TrEMBL record:
Signal peptide: none annotated. Residues 683-794 form the Integrase catalytic domain. The keyword Ribonucleoprotein does not apply. Transmembrane segments: none annotated. This is RNA-directed DNA polymerase.
Length: 986
């Protein structure tokens, strides 16, 4: 460092050299100098690059080689190489082709309640079909698969992956099958068992079985379980497929049956280890393994054949005559973590130290300087004492007592994390770390979505610790990215393409995944932010491209146009930038907040932004997408469901609502509005003050029905016709007995006639008519008509005078009020055949105020039930453009003014004709996102379909309202068809 040069009075020269650390941080340079250096009594002049920071001097590779600290070994024992080549030549059939274990084919056992699962074959891109056919023929020729005809109970989806060299690999998704297979228990040796058998030996070799599981045959029944569909028909596996959960145990058993009898051999799934004390013994064992393989038609991978080694890497350990040592690569990740640059990074580091505190003596004393620096009132100032403290702690945490030995009998836990620049993971058992690992991301991987980086971290962890994780059952992976847990539960065909590739990579591992908050993800998080440098290799799985097509894709022209509009959209352009370089901790732009909340699932691919497998639509293209979505004339709910499967943009649901609600043609064909909440009307001040009247038609005869709102007193009289003259005659008869009311509520025809209006004025009462075609506006009259109709029907069946039934109705107590209509109207009961005592007929003064309170309470109960399936409709304003009900159709009009009756409005049509309509028969025309005159919508499948019919609501309508709908043929009351339950049918 510059400080050392100053103390030693060493002169510095200028230099153009620039240094950067592995994390791309620039190291400030002070100059260069030449210093005479002595190591191990050897003196040399060495050129040093002097830095401005206070660090310990280090030697480069050239200097280390000059001082004979590092030696380059350029040759190996030629005799060993000659013997190895001779063995490969002599046993060439063992290193060529695909072998097959002898004996009875393996049978996959299913659970008793197993249910067959079939998936429709997926379409395959045209340019892959020829190569797919060739691959199928190749696998068929070597006996791995066979073509089948006819129906199949099991059919798995086929996934085609293309390797960098252009060849194809065929995979099937075995999730459904794995859930139905009975585990075939077979003891796989633990790591400690393998190491124990190999420990203390001097000579080692290793064989790796070629295409492992494909050397295990399966029986006909099992083959029928492993069927997959292609464009060229269905094929079934004849060998054990990749990904079946029992494969590791089955392969261990098969391998042990063939080679387990050989002394000096240790088998771990598809690896055969040879260890011996002497060279002669070692070579004899190797020959016996090769001879056994030839006799049993088993083949090895020649590129992975290791021969006559003095130190062999086995399950993450190095085994030699001296003993077993842990792979030094395990602890390099922690050793190379950079110094903390701020309090946040220091707190992370302190958390890591605390996590393994019981393995560090005197921790509280050692980390005191660091703890002082984390206090809130202390400003950040990193000094040499802090550096020394960190180095000491790192030395202790990466020493042997910290890294526990792997125990295959215990569950395995892996913590994984991903940052913008790297991946980190830690292998743990009993909350003690076994191994750490980290690597940096490539330039391509840095552009992945956050959820893809997190999944890549899991792939890296499982593959990096493959010796520990492959074939193990109880693996628990902890991640701080909660959305990833749901992604892994979904069908593989329903996740984005890149995640499909990663999920395929980990299908061979048995693991459960759980969520761990980031504040607790200390070790893996630190490793991901301080990754070791990583040089990408030509890994086939990293370059896989999924070609099985699950749905249609954009044409080339539309893809380019859509991509251009996405880049030109100012908001989406920022989203692309953040997706590629990383999102900030927060965003101030309100237009970006929605995307920020969904950032974990957003990724950028081939010029398009995706949210999962949905395309994010730029603003300029949303109008076009809305037209496409509405092209099928679906309702709002179904249109939204369709949209949510394919596209996304903020406010999409609202835009769909506005677009469909602005479609005039659709609105004209739509069903009625939902019923409105019931209006609670103040009860009349006294009996016979407010009456309801209507005309009943029964057996081709007309009856004038009069019903008292207060007492529920019923009068109905037969009339020859529905003329005003006949109604006036009956009114005179009724009013001669009971007197004149204050108000009569009725419908428009015939009660809206001039003759009845004059009659009402002469006798000092009002006639109020309800809105046209709105029978619930005079619901009390409807109730009276139903009672009168039931009385007439029962009298006809019983062949009695209807007046006898009318008397009984008038004399029967109303349950909610505790009095009969006669008592409420006359303050006494009427004498009938049942009356016994005279005192029962004496008049009694009633408390009408209490009775009215009961009426209001009863109405509230009715309202609570009635309002369950009602909806308060939006308010109207004068000059609003609307649609109103005219007969069975919806016609356009404009709001002129509010009518006197509740919820009623006066409307003008295009010809200036005036109509009166209840709010329920009016729809507001909204201004949508564009012209929708060519579209229509079917609302039958939406929320209105759930509206049920309840008791009619009561509305009190003011009098003297003008007639409307003069061009509409007047009709009787609503002639709905009412189907009664069987028990009520007479």
């Amino acid at each position: 460092s510059k400080m050392i040069c100053k103390k030693k009075d060493i002169k510095l020269d200028k230099t153009n050299i620039r240094l950067s650390a592995y994390d791309n941080n620039i190291i400030p340079i002070a100059g260069k100098c030449k210093v005479e250096t002595e190591i191990n009594k050897k003196k040399l002049t060495v050129e040093f690059i002097v830095v401005k920071t206070e660090d310990k001097p280090i030697l480069g590779l050239d200097a280390c080689m000059k001082f004979d600290i590092v030696r380059r070994v350029d040759n190996i024992n030629q005799n060993d190489l000659t013997v190895k080549n001779a063995l490969i030549s002599k046993y060439h059939q063992v290193f060529e082709g695909l072998g097959k274990f002898p004996g009875k084919p393996y049978k996959l056992q299913l659970k008793d309640d197993a249910k067959a699962v079939t998936h429709a074959p997926r379409r395959v891109a045209k340019h892959l079909q020829d190569r797919l056919k060739n691959k199928l023929n190749q696998l068929e020729s070597v006996g791995v698969i066979t073509k089948i005809d006819g129906p199949s109970e099991w059919l798995h989806p086929l996934v085609i992956v293309e390797k960098p060299n252009g060849s194809l690999r065929l995979c099937l998704d075995p999730k459904d099958l794995n859930s139905q297979i009975i585990n075939d228990k077979y003891l796989i040796p633990t790591t400690e068992e393998v190491l124990c058998d190999l420990n203390g030996k001097r000579f080692f070799s290793c064989f790796d079985l070629k295409d492992g599981f494909y050397q295990v045959g399966i029986d006909e029944a099992s083959s029928k379980l492993c069927v997959f569909g292609t464009p060229f028909g269905k094929y079934a596996f004849l060998r054990l497929p990749f990904g079946v959960k029992v494969a590791a145990e089955v392969f261990q058993k098969k391998n042990t049956d063939v080679f387990g009898h050989i002394k000096g051999v240790k088998i771990y799934i598809d690896d055969i280890y040879v260890a011996a004390d002497t060279l002669e013994e070692h070579d004899a064992i190797v020959l016996e393994v090769l001879e056994t393989a030839r006799k049993n038609n088993i083949t090895f991978n020649v590129s992975k054949f290791q021969f006559r080694l003095n130190k062999l890497k086995v399950l993450g350990h190095y085994v030699s005559f001296e003993g077993v040592e842990i792979d030094p690569g395990r602890i390099n990740a922690i050793k190379n973590m950079p110094l903390p640059r701020n309090k946040t990074e220091l707190l992370k580091f302190m958390g890591t130290i605390k996590y393994v505190s019981k393995y560090i003596p005197n921790l509280s004393e050692l980390n005191h300087p660091l703890r002082e620096l984390t206090k809130e009132h202390v400003e950040w100032s990193w000094l040499q004492k802090h550096t020394d403290c960190v180095n000491r702690l790192k030395q202790l945490i990466t020493s042997a007592p910290v890294l526990a030995h792997y125990n295959d009998k215990k569950p395995l836990k892996i913590q994984t994390d991903a940052s913008n620049n790297g991946l980190g993971c830690v292998l743990m058992q009993d909350n003690r770390p076994i191994a750490f690992a980290s690597r940096s991301l490539t330039d391509t991987e840095k552009r992945y979505a956050i959820i893809e980086k997190e999944m890549l971290g899991i792939c890296h962890a499982l593959e990096h610790f493959h010796y520990f994780t492959y074939g193990k059952k109880n693996i628990s992976i902890q991640t701080d990215h909660k959305p990833l847990i749901n992604i892994l539960k979904r069908n593989i065909s329903k996740v984005p393409m890149r995640l499909q590739r990663m999920i395929l990579r980990v299908l061979r591992y048995n693991f459960d995944i759980s969520y761990l908050p980031g504040k607790d993800m200390l070790i893996a998080d630190m490793l991901s932010r301080a990754p070791l440098s990583y040089k990408p290799v030509n890994n086939e799985s990293d370059e896989y491209i999924i070609h099985s097509l699950v749905k249609s894709v954009l044409s080339k022209e539309k893809h380019e146009l859509f991509s251009e509009k996405t880049r030109n959209d100012p908001i989406l352009n920022k989203v692309i930038q953040f997706t590629e370089i990383g999102w900030p901790n927060n965003v101030a732009d309100s237009n970006l907040k929605v995307y920020y909340q969904l950032r974990h699932a957003i990724f950028y691919c081939q010029g398009l932004l995706f949210l999962g497998d949905r395309i994010i639509v730029p603003k300029e293209s949303r109008q076009t997408i809305l037209k496409c979505l509405h092209e099928g004339h679906l309702g709002i709910v179904k249109t939204k469901q369709k949209a949510k499967r394919h596209v996304f943009w903020p406010g999409m649901s609202t835009d769909i609502d506005n677009y469909i609600n602005a479609c005039n043609i659709c609105l004209e064909l739509r069903p009625n509005n939902p019923k409105q909440p019931m209006l609670i009307v103040e009860p009349p001040p006294r009996p016979w003050a407010l009456l309801a009247c209507d005309i009943l038609e029964f057996n081709s005869k007309f009856y004038l029905v009069t019903f008292d709102y207060f007492s529920k007193w019923l009068e109905f009289h037969r009339i020859p016709n529905k003329s005003s003259t006949e109604i006036v005659k009956i009114f005179n008869l009724i009013f001669a007995t009971h007197g004149y009311p204050d108000e009569i509520i009725c419908d428009n025809n015939p009660f809206g006639s001039a003759q009845l209006s004059i009659f009402a004025q002469e006798h000092n009462f009002k006639i109020t008519t309800s809105s046209p075609n709105y029978s619930r506006g005079h619901g009390m009259a409807e109730a009276g008509v139903k009672i009168a109709e039931r009385i007439l029907k029962k009298a006809e069946k019983a062949n009695v005078d209807p007046n006898i039934l009318v008397l009984q109705y008038r004399n029967t107590e109303i349950p909610e009020l505790g009095f009969s209509p006669a008592q409420l109207l006359f303050s006494r009961p009427l004498k009938d055949k049942i009356t016994i005592t005279d005192t029962h007929l004496h008049p009694k003064v009633l408390d009408y105020e209490k009775i009215k309170e009961k009426m209001i309470e009863n109405k509230k109960k009715q309202k609570s039930y009635y309002d369950r399936n009602t909806k308060e409709l939006p308010g109207l304003k004068i000059n609003d453009r609307i649609l109103f009900k005219l007969g069975n159709d919806w016609k356009q009009g404009m709001i002129e003014k509010q009518a006197e009756t509740p919820r009623s409005w006066w409307i003008k049509d295009s010809a200036d004709r005036r109509y009166r309509r209840n709010r329920e028969h009016v729809i507001i025309l909204k201004r949508g996102l564009g012209n929708s005159s060519n579209t229509s919508v079917d609302m039958a499948g939406d929320s209105n379909s759930n509206i049920q019919d309840h008791n009619e609501q009561v509305q009190v309508v003011p009098p003297n309202e003008d007639r409307a709908d003069t061009n509409v043929k007047p009709g009787l009351r609503d002639r709905r068809t009412i189907v009664k339950p069987l028990k009520y049918r007479d």
